[in-house]
Amino acid sequence: MIDHVTANVGDFEQAKRFYTQALAPLGYSVQMEFEGAAGFGTGEGIPDFWIGSSPERGAAHVAFGAGDRATVDAFYDAAMAAADGNNVEAVCHLPG
Description:
The protein is α/β, with parallel strands linked by helices.
C-alpha cells in the first residue's frame, strides 16, 4: 500500500494548475497546501499525492487508480489538455 507520493516540480504554480485539472475527473482536489507544496486527495483530508517545489527534479511515473474505463478516459482528456510533459496515468484493473 502506498501512503503518498511526492513529485518534485520546477514551477510549482504551473504544476499545481496541471494536477488540479488532470486529477479532477478522479475526484482529487487540493487537501493541504504549504508554501511550495500541495497535497491532493479524494476528500478525506489526507492527501496521498504531493507536489513540491524543488531544484532536484527527476523523471517519475505515477499511476492513479480509477473505478472504470470512462474515468480513465476523462482523466486522459483532462491531463492532455493541461499537459506539461508529465508522465502520469490513470489505470483501471477491472475488465471492460
